[in-house]
């Protein structure tokens, strides 16, 4: 027994995994020993086998056998401790030194702080003390002295006893069952707790249990699947957010398209109705004047005949009172003949106002509007409307006339064939060139003249009489336009104007030209310029309707533009006349 006290300790016979005396010990190739069952469970499910103490790695799991020599020494050590060994430390009965050793362990356990219970431990077992796996000499005092320090493989953390499988550079730790003081290496899927082998045998016999490593392996695979599912859910929601944003953008574009299309459609209808109304008024006025003229002429003829008949009536009355039979006979022969009169029974004033053609034209326009309206209701407005610049409503005649300016012609810019009035308010084309200085401002090929009024900001309006002409051009031009040689009169080159050709062909000089169908030919044109908005608008002054508007960006000064065109051998000799604006 003295040899035992001097050289042997309990620590030398403890398994570092379960913290208990070896049961069927086996040794790894690196020389460390463990319980056969403990090392087997430790390696179960591991991809690479490692020694729990020195961390030596084995690519292939070693085929371990029971170390019979160590088992015999362990059994002898147990018998030297009293024949009970582990059983006595757990409360078994015996005598001699074995009882003393058991008492030593019991006293040491009483001195240790109460550990936290195992997850599988019931509340009734909370008073069960932990077992400290340390060696105490048999001659040490039983009831006095501080407890020996725990061995390196045992640690305490937050009052919970932890089993540490560590080498020189490892900090991995495993929980210890507070009921049986063994590592919780088993997971109960039924109760969802980690337990030790003894808990499995005592309280979880018919439960679904696996090793903690296997459960963690399965859990990791489930984590990967769950992470992928969450990533897919995130991707779907991000996609849905993008779809909603795209839908909102498309809705905004649809609103813009619908607004532009509806404004265009109804503006066209209103403009057509206004033109038809103005044309109707003019036709009725012309019909009234023609009827009045016809009535006046007829009345004058009838009055002449009445006057002649009254003269004959007077002559017959005088003849009836005459006393000269011879004279009466001769005179009556002349007076009794039929007077030179016209049969007026079929003559009447023409009551046809001539409005039928206007109504038929309007009916055709309304039918066209209805057809387009049906197309819009079925198909919606075309996307091309969306790409156009926003429709800007034009101000009414009464509004633009408030910006009237006194425009006069600039003789220094007039083509040599042009004849300007003394007040610089009218221009026409002569038969031959005049002897004028060829200054840089003068046009030498285009039969035109500019106004003196420079336009660099704000709003400006003027009116020009065009009645009786077959050809003309009216609008504005940039100051820097080319004035020598052939000129391409388009907005790109600095010209914005309305043209008349061959008495009834109206067009705007765009690329290509924009043909305008005017049912009511204008006798006076109103020109309105909004420099800041980049607009040049044209109006039929008598009909008080808007004809067309250029939308552009103006970057330099502009001037009114006038071209009476050539006189065409007298057919187009009527001048363009700048008239006062009457509001």
UniProtKB/TrEMBL annotation:
Region described as Disordered: 79-159
Keyword Metal-binding: yes
GO molecular function, one term: zinc ion binding
Gene3D superfamilies, per the entry: 2.60.120.920, Classic Zinc Finger (3.30.160.60), Zinc/RING finger domain, C3HC4 (zinc finger) (3.30.40.10)
Pfam families: PRY, SPRY, TRIM_CC, zf-B_box, zf-RING_UBOX
Residue ranges occupied by any RING-type domain in the UniProt entry: 15-55
Entry-linked SMART domains: PRY (SM00589), RING (SM00184), SPRY (SM00449)
Compositional bias ranges of the Pro residues kind: 144-153
Domain B box-type: 172-212
UniProt xrefs under InterPro entries: B30.2/SPRY, B30.2/SPRY_sf, Butyrophylin_SPRY, ConA-like_dom_sf, PRY, SPRY_dom, TRIM/RBCC, TRIM8/14/16/25/29/45/65_CC
Keywords for the protein's UniProt record, in alphabetical order: Metal-binding, Zinc, Zinc-finger
CDD domains xrefs: Bbox2_TRIM16-like, SPRY_PRY_C-I_1
Segments forming domain B30.2/SPRY: 387-581
Protein name: E3 ubiquitin-protein ligase TRIM39-like
Species whose genome carries this gene: Scophthalmus maximus
């Amino acid at each position: 027994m003295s040899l035992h006290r001097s050289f042997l300790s309990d620590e030398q016979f403890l398994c570092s995994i379960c913290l208990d005396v070896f049961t069927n010990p086996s040794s790894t190739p690196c020389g460390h020993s463990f319980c056969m069952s403990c090392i087997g469970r430790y390696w179960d499910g591991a991809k690479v086998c490692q020694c729990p103490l020195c961390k030596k790695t084995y690519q292939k799991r070693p085929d371990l056998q029971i170390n019979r020599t160590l088992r015999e020494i362990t059994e002898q050590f147990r018998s030297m401790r009293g024949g009970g060994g582990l059983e006595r430390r757990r409360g078994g009965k015996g005598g001699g030194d074995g009882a003393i050793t058991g008492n030593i362990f019991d006293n040491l356990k009483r001195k240790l702080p109460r550990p936290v219970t195992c997850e599988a431990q019931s509340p009734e077992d909370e008073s069960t003390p932990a077992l400290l796996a340390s060696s105490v000499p048999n001659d040490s005092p039983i009831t006095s002295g501080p407890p020996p320090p725990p061995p390196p493989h045992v640690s305490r953390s937050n009052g919970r006893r932890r089993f540490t499988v560590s080498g020189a550079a490892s900090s991995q730790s495993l929980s210890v069952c507070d009921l049986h003081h063994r590592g919780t290496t088993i997971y109960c899927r039924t109760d969802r707790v980690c337990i030790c082998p003894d808990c499995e045998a005592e309280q979880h016999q018919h439960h679904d249990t696996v090793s903690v490593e296997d459960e963690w392996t399965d859990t990791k695979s489930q984590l990967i699947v769950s992470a992928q599912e969450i990533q897919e859910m995130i991707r779907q929601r991000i996609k849905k957010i993008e779809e909603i944003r795209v839908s909102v953008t498309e809705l905004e574009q649809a609103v813009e398209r619908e607004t532009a299309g509806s404004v265009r459609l109804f503006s066209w209808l209103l403009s057509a109705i206004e033109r038809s109304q103005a044309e109707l008024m003019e036709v009725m006025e012309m019909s009234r004047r023609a009827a009045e003229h016809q009535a006046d002429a007829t009345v004058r003829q009838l009055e002449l005949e009445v006057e002649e008949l009254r003269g004959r009536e007077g002559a017959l009355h005088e003849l009836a009172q005459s006393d000269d039979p011879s004279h009466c006979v001769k005179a009556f022969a002349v007076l009794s003949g039929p007077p030179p009169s016209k049969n007026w029974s079929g003559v009447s004033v023409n009551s046809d106002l001539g409005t039928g053609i206007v109504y038929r034209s309007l009916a055709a326009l309304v039918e066209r509007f209805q057809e387009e309206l049906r197309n819009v209701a079925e198909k919606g407005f075309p996307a091309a409307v969306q790409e156009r610049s926003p429709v800007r409503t034009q101000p009414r005649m009464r509004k633009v006339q408030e910006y009237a300016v006194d425009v006069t012609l600039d003789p220094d810019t007039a083509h040599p064939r042009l004849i300007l009035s003394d007040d610089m308010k009218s221009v026409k084309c002569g038969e031959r060139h005049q002897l004028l200085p060829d200054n840089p401002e003068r046009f030498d090929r285009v039969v035109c003249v500019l106004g003196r009024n420079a336009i660099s900001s704000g709003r400006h309006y003027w009116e020009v009489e065009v009645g009786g002409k077959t050809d003309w051009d009216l609008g504005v031009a940039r100051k820097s336009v080319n004035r020598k040689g052939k000129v391409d009169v388009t907005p790109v080159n600095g010209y914005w104007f309305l043209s008349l050709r061959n008495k009834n062909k109206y067009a705007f000089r765009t690329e290509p030209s924009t043909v305008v169908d005017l049912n009511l030919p204008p006798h006076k044109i109103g020109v309105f310029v909004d420099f800041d908005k980049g607009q040049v608008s044209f109006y039929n002054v008598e009909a008080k309707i808007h004809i067309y508007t250029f939308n552009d960006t103006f970057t330099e000064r502009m001037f009114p533009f006038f071209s009476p065109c050539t006189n065409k051998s007298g057919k187009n000799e009527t001048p363009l006349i700048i008239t006062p604006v009457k509001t």
